[in-house]
Amino acid sequence: MTVNFRYAQEKIKLQRTRLQLIKDVSKEGGGGLSTNQEFRDAGAEEWGGTAARGDFDRDYEEREELTIERIQEMLEKRQFKELKDELENNMYPVDLADILEDVNEKQLVLIFRLLVKEEAAETFSYMNSDLREVLIGALTDSELEEVMEEMYLDDTVDVLEEMPANVVDRLLMVTNEEKRMQINQLLQYPEDSAGSVMNVDYIALNKEMTVEDAILKIRQVGLNRETIYTCYVTEKKRLMGAVDIKDLLTTGESRVIEEIMDTNMLYAHTTDDQEEVARTIMKYGLIALPIVDNEHCMVGIVTVDDAMIVLQEEETEDISIMAGVNPNDESYFGTTVFEHVKGRIPWLLFLMLSATITQMIMNSYEAAIAVMPQLTGFVPMLTGTGGNCGSQSSSLVIRGLAVGEIEFCDLFKVIWKEIRVAVCVSLILAVINGLRIMVMGQGDVLMALTIGVTMACTVIIAKVVGCSLPLLAKKVGLDPAIMATPLISTLVDISTISVYFAIVSGVFQLGA
Amino acid sequence: MTVNFRYAQEKIKLQRTRLQLIKDVSKEGGGGLSTNQEFRDAGAEEWGGTAARGDFDRDYEEREELTIERIQEMLEKRQFKELKDELENNMYPVDLADILEDVNEKQLVLIFRLLVKEEAAETFSYMNSDLREVLIGALTDSELEEVMEEMYLDDTVDVLEEMPANVVDRLLMVTNEEKRMQINQLLQYPEDSAGSVMNVDYIALNKEMTVEDAILKIRQVGLNRETIYTCYVTEKKRLMGAVDIKDLLTTGESRVIEEIMDTNMLYAHTTDDQEEVARTIMKYGLIALPIVDNEHCMVGIVTVDDAMIVLQEEETEDISIMAGVNPNDESYFGTTVFEHVKGRIPWLLFLMLSATITQMIMNSYEAAIAVMPQLTGFVPMLTGTGGNCGSQSSSLVIRGLAVGEIEFCDLFKVIWKEIRVAVCVSLILAVINGLRIMVMGQGDVLMALTIGVTMACTVIIAKVVGCSLPLLAKKVGLDPAIMATPLISTLVDISTISVYFAIVSGVFQLGA
Predict the structure, then answer these.
(1) Which fold has domain B2-189?
(2) What integer best gives the mean pLDDT of chain B?
(3) Please, which pLDDT band fits residue B291 given cuts at 50, 70 and 90?
(4) Domain B337-507 classification at class level
(5) C-alpha span between B464 and B456 (Å, rounded)
(6) ipTM exceeding 0.85, yes/no
(7) Is the pLDDT of residue B454 over 90?
(8) Chain A with chain B: Cβ pairs closer than 8 A
(9) Longest dimension (CA), chain A
């Protein structure tokens, strides 16, 4: 408890220093960008507007942005004290982690050692794994110990999962016994489960406590918790209810927690899928969702910021799969050329070989093609249009499934809608294309009609196949995203070419 | 102030009733699903696990899920008091809004009138616009007035934007003067701007206040604010700093706000793009971002739950555009067939007509095709593989741009990476396809080599075009998502066919 209060004091002192510092700068009439606006100015071009500045907020705003150039300049001039101050008061850990990617190893270690330990730990958790390894190699055991102590447990687990075994050993060696046990526990949850993204630091209250007791408890332990916005009521570790900090503050202090707690709260299990947990947090507008184990004991919370990251990752994964790329957890640049090839080749190979079917169909009409070679000119247009139609339908359905708007039971409703859309679309396309054929002298009315009928069949088949395959995939437990453009367009190619040559060889009496 | 305290009392009473009720049910030994688990059970199939239940949490958990069937049954039996209780204590507004879509008009109005006003307002804000119109037609002026009073201002604005003019007039008539002015203000912000999604209810503190004063103020006004987790320090309305509720609670009560406030906080302008605001909230893990006007006066906040919705909408929009569908704000089923056609036809038409170029190229090789008709059999495979390769690259780059990982200045880095990937991929594809051609007797070594070289050129062109067009689009201010599969595959079709026929007519001396 005393320790926590010490932190609080420390923090206040820092804040004071900061205010003082800003005022000094503004008195000296220091120009440059305003601190508050650093993030706006960095993205000013994108944001469209120019950052507004007035005299009124001088006292608080005058501070030059801490860029990589300024940091390196200060390092060269050995202005360590000034740099330390600026790093504390004029830099966000997530931005610093970006900057550290572009400095050399010596500077990296130097800068990292200037950080106060909370910020060091947070910056460390935002770094990429290469940078972390360099840093771990350079820091002393006691420095590492401090970082490990300050990091939230979920971040620690993320770090450990990405490190080679010898580094993990070293990190675990400098971690205290209790935390090591918690880490081992978390590492055992399956990948992509709620347990693997949850945070074990939350505020637990008893239902017998008064509101006053509860607020006192928050005062004591709050600084070590990632979020205090919602507190959880447990009895022998079992989750009984939730109390929002707002309710605690707006209620009489003598009331008992049991009276004001919400017993109708949502929760999830450690083994639940992280995406479902994130979607629940989003749907109900929650700040955090409590996670319980099989005995209904509360073991952690998933917070809204982690939920946002989960959703972004899942959406990136969906977009990759929809483009025929096996997803990995790394970023685009973080993925090596070899891994990119590995992720892309399976679908390309499978689809290329599937196209053999198309080829065999066309080869069976070789004689017809030899007689009327101009027929083949229409093939890319027909397969292209079919592919685009199928891709429109499948993408909309895949997205509808992902956000929970469409379900398997809507199958016939979706198909009926797509058929009506397809009829309208194909009529418009067929008429315009028919006119084009005649105007450009590529054929007579019969040719225009033939292509038109093929177009209509193609569009309708493409839309029905495109909308139903994702739903069927979902039903049999596959990821609907695999039923996207690449696969759909290959299937549509096959059907388009079959339909096309069947129709033209009938109409023009070419015989296969 | 007195009003606020009255609400607090009311809420506590409700919570007590709820607890009491649950205990009664469990004493009667009522079976059925547990309340807490209703949301899990509803999605049990998807979630993969079975909901764990034990005896330990009986007191709090025994409550049957309030399904549409049970609601309708209670309405028929005229058990209004019981239904009112259940609606208060066993139902989330977002779920109720879903259920209300499936009841008839009479039941809709009946159920809505049973809701306590806070829940009525929240349910109303989750409804679709058709349902809202029905309800507005059925409610009395004073009932509407209550709903309008209880709704958060950002939700009110959303409702008004979707209503026909006569309904808007009626709604504004029952709104008090002050709120009407605020609404008019909000309606003037451009669509998709931070101003249009912000909430004007936040807690403003003065820097001279002590922590004790601040907590007292939160107690007084907190219940009417959407979020109290972060409070903002203003001076003559100008944004000076931010204080987290955690800092207020963990700090000595006599400290002055100026000492503990964070002056280095992030903020955005009313005219900033809502997606950028949402991405900032996500990047920095914020609960809310303050929004200021051109005079740096604070006018509202964008909260993390709204940011999540903005991001989901933007991602749905991106996926639509990437599939060649002009996005609209409605859901899949909320969009009429005519609107679906309108959204899909422009790209289909444009791409179909662009395919005329492909056709003209093929027609110019008519003589060659007549001599070797089997050449055309390779066309769908080559264009398909090219399209898939291009679509892989463009999708990864579009996503990288959306999440801020890739920027225009990375153009050459991206192209270099894609070229290396393309070389590896094309080698693998060409060799395997060459073997297939010979094994299946579709051609000799020369044919296999020719197709292999074409394949390699196609893949490299596709990957370079696919990765650079989204970046170039971004540079000239277009949405990178339009440079996705449909457009890329049409462009790749043209280049593939040009390359293919140029190579084969050279190798087999066919002459155009």
Answers:
(1) MgtE N-terminal fold (1.25.60)
(2) 82
(3) very high
(4) mainly alpha
(5) 12
(6) no
(7) yes
(8) 452
(9) 95
